């Protein structure tokens, strides 16, 4: 079986590695891939938003299945383009991917189907947005309506910070079209967790929960990022909250999307928070989350391609999980999530058998060394029988990055309070 993975980040690298475990998969392509992915698959120089080129490649190369990693191609309609050519692809259609593509749609949808979430209002007018912030007070959450690469959310602890955030989006055009509308939400207090599910129509098959660390620096300080590390499972997460999330959030979401004429197939990601009233949705994503996927998929015992075939055929894939802990820490370019230097040579990345290294923003240069191409460069992870053992292996491996000031990483990932 030939499989194409669309995307170029850490999430796509772990999907490729998981596919390599399958006895049924004989050839893997990645478009466009990255330096690390090139060691595990054939990289194809097609950008992930070049929808027609991707479909033509899959057709010409007789690809049996395509798996979509990032949100941009989904919201642009890559699934629709592939289906038009009778090509098998795993992911939601453009109509269904709106659950991530528009925060305003997602909030209105949750309200309509009684899915618990923070109260909110949507604005295009700066003065009305500021008046609402004054009325509600801080802390308060400001979100760009559209896709902003994980950076379109500001948790404003002070009123002025909230004013600055709406100003930068609505007037300063910080996120372009994505920020031309803002969703202003009530601040929810509690511990966050992520829960993915394989979905086809009303059938929902939940994975194991994970928790990611969004802030750039230790002890959850600094700006929000796309994620600085993650761990799975989540020992302090109440099992009743997982059950509630599946029954009252994920299943009603799948059913509601079908009722809306937006039948959902693919991975549905719930970004959730445990509040005093129970779990509430912070956001939905229309694909595997990054970096949580890098710690969830390695714990999955099943063959990924078999799961996709079962789910899309209406069969229960009977998910099986390792009895272990996976923790992963992101190595980022200094300055991320702001401006950062690219093309910095990385230390020697020889694997040892106690960690696995996932590439997110790398290329291999002609001299054979890897160099950085993005803000999040790598994720170093370990699977062990206790969180402490996993942390020990990861941070021992990461010592090689302490010799350079071009990169940084959090030293508290997976420290479970």
Automatic annotation (TrEMBL):
Superkingdom as given in the UniProt entry: Bacteria
InterPro entries (alphabetical): ATP-grasp, ATP_grasp_subdomain_1, PreATP-grasp_dom_sf, PRibGlycinamid_synth_ATP-grasp, PRibGlycinamide_synth, PRibGlycinamide_synth_C-dom, PRibGlycinamide_synth_C_sf, PRibGlycinamide_synth_CS
Molecular function terms, GO-annotated: ATP binding; metal ion binding; phosphoribosylamine-glycine ligase activity
Residues spanning the membrane: none
Domain ATP-grasp: 107-313
Biological processes, Gene Ontology terms: 'de novo' IMP biosynthetic process; purine nucleobase biosynthetic process
Protein's pathway: Purine metabolism; IMP biosynthesis via de novo pathway; N(1)-(5-phospho-D-ribosyl)glycinamide from 5-phospho-alpha-D-ribose 1-diphosphate: step 2/2
Assigned EC number: 6.3.4.13
Class of this enzyme: ligase
Reactions this protein catalyses: 5-phospho-beta-D-ribosylamine + glycine + ATP = N(1)-(5-phospho-beta-D-ribosyl)glycinamide + ADP + phosphate + H(+)
Annotated Gene3D superfamilies: 3.40.50.20, ATP-grasp fold, A domain, ATP-grasp fold, B domain, Phosphoribosylglycinamide synthetase, C-terminal domain
Pfam families noted in UniProt: GARS_A (PF01071), GARS_C (PF02843), GARS_N (PF02844)
Key words of the record: ATP-binding, Ligase, Nucleotide-binding, Purine biosynthesis
Cofactors named for this entry: Mn(2+); Mg(2+)
Family statement: Belongs to the GARS family.
PANTHER family per record: PHOSPHORIBOSYLAMINE--GLYCINE LIGASE, PHOSPHORIBOSYLAMINE--GLYCINE LIGASE, CHLOROPLASTIC
HAMAP family: GARS
UniProt name for this protein: Phosphoribosylamine--glycine ligase
Organism this protein belongs to: Gracilibacillus dipsosauri
Lineage: Bacteria, Bacillati, Bacillota, Bacilli, Bacillales
Gene: purD
